[in-house]
C-alpha cells in the first residue's frame, strides 16, 4: 500500500467554502499523483462537525456533486479530531477491493465562536463531560495539571513546545500562523485560557482541507510505502477516566503499529503528533514510546525534538501552529511525512529521513490512529 | 460473508438515550449470534445527526465507553439516511482484515421539531437546496409531482402503499406504529404536508437502534449469506438534478449488486426499500428493476407487493410504518430480511423466501447502498 499523491490548502481563517476547500485539496493531490479523477475507485472523507458548524451533513454526496466522478462509492467517516486518520485507515482497508482511493479531510471552524466551541464540545461525552463544562481547553488543562503534579512538568516546558512549533510553522508556506516575532516571553505572557494553559498552548480554530491518494501498488519512484495502519478506541468521557496523564488507546494502537512494521520508536526518523494543546505533545511523546512517562520535558529542553534535533516532532508546526481544521489535521500530518520522505520539505527538511510516524487522536484519547510510512 | 447475528429495539418516540438504545441493539445482536463482545474485532456505527440533535459526535468512543470492549477499532460512518447501509458496506469490506464485526445504527429524532427538521435538512445541499426551503417533504413532493405528470401516478397509488405498510407494521412488534383502525379513507383525508404528499405519505421521526453481526465464515446453519454489497453516489443537490423521477446512483449500485450475485430482479423473493415517503417506494421499485418506470402503480393496485403477493415489498412496514430512526433504518431492513430468510418472521412470514434485497438511500439519491442476501 502506497501514498501516491498528496495535496492540501493553506490552513487559517479562510474565505473559501467547504466544497471549495475540498476541491482545492483533491485537485492538488490528483495533480501530485499525476492521476485523473476517473482513476479513483472510491473516496473516503474525514469531517468532524460539518453539521453543527456548516449545516452540512452528507458531505460524501457533496463531493460527488462537485467532482466529475461517475457514481463511485464515497463515504464520510467521523471520529472527532481523528476523522482524517480514521478515513485513511478505512481507505487502506478498502484497498483489498480497490486500486486507487482518495482520502480527503476538510473543516470550516471559523464561524461564531460559541457555535464552534459548542460543536467541538460534541467530541466529549454529553451526559458527563459536557454537563460539567468540560470544553476541550478545560479537559486538557486538567490533564496538564495532573502531569505537572505527577512528573514535575513545568509551564516553561509547554512554552518551549509552542515556540518550536511556531518556529517550524514559519518555514511552512501552508501554515495558519506566520509569526516572525514569536519568542518565549510572548508565549509565557499570553493570556490564560484555562489554567495552566495559555493562549499559545492551544491549537487555533482553522479552516482547511488536505487530501492523499492511496494505491494498492507503487506507481512512481517517489511513492511512499505504508508499513503500518492501526486504530484503537478508549474512553469518550474524561469524567470516567482514572489516569488522565496517558491515553491507553494510543499505547495499544502504537504497539500494534510497531508490530506491523517490525520497528521500535528509535527506528523512526520523524514524528507527527496530535498537539491540539502543548501538553498533548508531551503525552503523545510518552505514549508512543519516544521516552518514558515524565521524561519528554528533557527532550524538549535539550532541543532534541526540533527539526535539526535527533527526534524531530511536528516539523510543519503541528496542530498548534500549522493549524487544526479538524477533519483535515490527520491528513496534513501525512502530507508532511510524505514531503519529508520524498526530500521535498525545503528549508524544514529533516536530513536522511526514511521512516515517519503519524499520531492522530480524537477527544481525550477516545480514538487513536497511528500510521507508519517508509521511503521505498 | 455472513450475517451471524441481528438485534434491534422498538422504533418510536422512546424514553431511552442514544447510548441506552445502542446498548440494547448490540446486546440483542450478540445474544442472537451467541457471541461475547470480546469476540468482536471491530465495530462500525451508522449515525446521521447525533451532533445537531443530541450534541453528541464521536459516537464511536461513546460505544467504547459503554461496552466492555478492549480498545478495538470503532468507526462512525455518516452518509445521511444511508448511514446504516454504508456502515454495513464498510464492515463487509473490513472482513478482509477481521473475522467478526458488529454494525450498529442508532438515532434520536424526537427533540424539538424545528431542531429535528433543521438537522434532517443538513442531508441536502446547504448552498442550493436548503436556501430554497427544500426540506425533505418538499423535495419528495416535487419528485411526486414530476412522477405524476410523467407517468400518471395518482394520489391513490401513494395511499395504497401507505396502507400496505401500515398493515405490515401491525404485524411487527418492533414497529413505531400499531394502527389497527387504518384504512384508505383515513390516509386520503389526512392533512397535506407538502402537496401532493399528506401526513400518511411521510415516514415518522423515530428513535431507535438496530445491529447486525457480520462474520467472514458461517457459524451456524441459520446464518444468512451476503451475496452482493454495493454502494454508489449521486447528486447531493436536487436543484442541480435534471430528471428527478429516478436516482442514477441507485440504478448503478443495483446493477453492480445483481452482477455480483449473478441474479436479476425476478430472482429476488423479498425487497426492503427506502420508503422515506410513499413516492420513494415507487421510485425504488422502478430503479431496482422490479418493473419499468411508471408501472409500479399497477403492482401496487393489484396487491402484488403485499406480504402474500408475488413481489413482497417492505414486509416490516418499511420506513413509513416500522419507523425511520435514520442511522438505524438501513440495518432494520437487514434485520427483516434475515428474519424472513430464517423463517422467523411469524405472521408476516413470506412463504419460501430464500433471497432478499435491501435498498438504502441517503438524501434524494445522493448515496445508494444495495445488499443482497441468500439463505445458505
Q: Roughly how many Å apart are the termini of chain A?
A: 11 Å
* Distinct helical segment count of chain A: 13
**On the 0-100 scale, what is the average pLDDT of chain A?**
97
Briefly note the structural class of the backbone of chain A: alpha/beta
Q: What does the main sheet of chain A amount to?
A: 9 strands, mixed
Highest-level CATH class of the domain at 2-113 and 205-215 in chain A? Alpha Beta
Shape of chain A: globular
Q: Could you say what the CATH architecture of the domain at 2-113 and 205-215 in chain A is?
A: 3-Layer(aba) Sandwich
The CATH H-level homologous superfamily of the domain at 2-113 and 205-215 in chain A: Thiolase/Chalcone synthase
Q: What is the total tally of β strands of chain A?
A: 11
- As a percent range, the share of helical residues of chain A equals 25-40%
CATH topology name of the domain at 2-113 and 205-215 in chain A, in short, is Peroxisomal Thiolase, Chain A, domain 1
| Protein chains sharing the most extensive interface | A-B, 61 and 61 residues
Order of helices and strands of chain A: EHEHHEHEHHHHEEEEHEHHHHEE
Low-pLDDT residue spans of chain A: none
Amino acid at each position: 500500500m502506497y501514498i501516491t499523491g498528496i495535496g492540501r490548502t493553506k490552513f487559517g481563517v479562510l474565505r473559501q467554502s467547504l466544497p471549495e476547500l475540498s476541491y482545492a485539496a483533491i485537485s492538488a493531490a490528483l495533480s501530485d499523483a499525476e492521476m485523473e479523477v476517473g482513476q479513483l475507485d472510491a473516496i473516503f472523507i474525514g469531517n468532524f462537525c460539518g453539521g453543527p458548524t456548516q449545516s452540512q451533513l452528507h458531505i460524501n454526496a457533496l463531493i460527488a456533486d462537485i467532482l466529475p466522478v461517475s457514481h463511485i462509492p464515497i463515504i464520510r467517516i467521523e471520529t472527532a479530531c481523528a476523522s482524517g486518520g480514521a478515513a485513511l485507515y478505512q481507505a487502506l482497508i478498502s484497498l483489498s477491493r480497490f486500486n486507487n482511493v482518495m482520502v480527503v479531510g476538510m473543516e470550516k471552524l471559523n464561524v461564531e465562536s460559541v457555535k464552534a466551541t459548542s460543536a467541538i464540545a460534541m467530541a466529549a461525552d454529553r451526559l458527563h463531560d459536557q454537563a460539567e463544562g468540560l470544553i476541550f481547553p478545560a479537559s486538557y488543562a486538567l490533564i496538564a495539571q495532573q502531569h505537572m503534579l505527577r512528573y514535575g512538568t513545568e509551564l516553561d516546558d509547554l512554552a518551549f513546545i509552542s515556540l518550536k512549533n511556531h518556529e517550524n510553522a514559519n518555514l511552512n508556506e501552508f501554515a495558519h500562523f506566520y509569526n516572525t516575532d514569536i519568542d518565549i516571553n510572548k508565549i509565557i505572557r499570553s493570556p490564560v485560557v484555562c489554567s495552566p494553559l495559555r493562549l499559545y498552548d492551544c491549537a487555533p480554530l482553522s479552516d482547511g482541507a488536505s487530501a492523499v491518494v492511496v494505491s494498492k501498488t507503487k506507481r512512481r519512484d517517489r511513492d511512499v510505502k505504508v508499513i503500518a495502519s492501526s486504530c484503537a478506541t478508549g474512553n469518550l468521557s474524561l469524567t470516567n477516566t482514572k489516569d488522565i496523564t496517558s491515553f491507553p488507546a494510543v499505547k495499544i494502537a502504537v504497539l500494534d503499529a510497531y508490530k506491523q512494521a517490525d520497528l521500535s520508536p528509535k527506528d523512526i526518523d520523524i514524528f507527527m503528533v496530535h498537539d491540539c494543546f502543548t501538553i498533548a505533545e508531551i503525552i503523545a511523546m510518552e505514549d508512543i514510546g519516544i521516552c518514558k512517562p515524565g521524561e519528554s520535558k528533557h527532550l524538549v529542553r535539550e532541543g532534541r525534538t526540533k527539526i535539526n534535533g535527533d527526534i524531530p516532532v511536528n516539523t510543519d508546526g503541528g496542530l498548534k501552529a500549522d493549524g487544526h481544521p479538524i477533519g483535515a489535521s490527520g491528513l496534513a500530518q501525512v502530507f508532511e511525512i510524505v514531503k519529508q520522505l520524498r526530500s521535498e520539505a525545503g528549508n524544514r527538511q529533516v536530513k536522511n529521513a526514511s521512516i515517519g510516524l503519524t499520531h492522530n487522536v480524537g477527544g481525550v484519547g477516545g480514538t487513536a490512529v497511528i500510521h507508519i510510512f517508509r521511503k521505498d
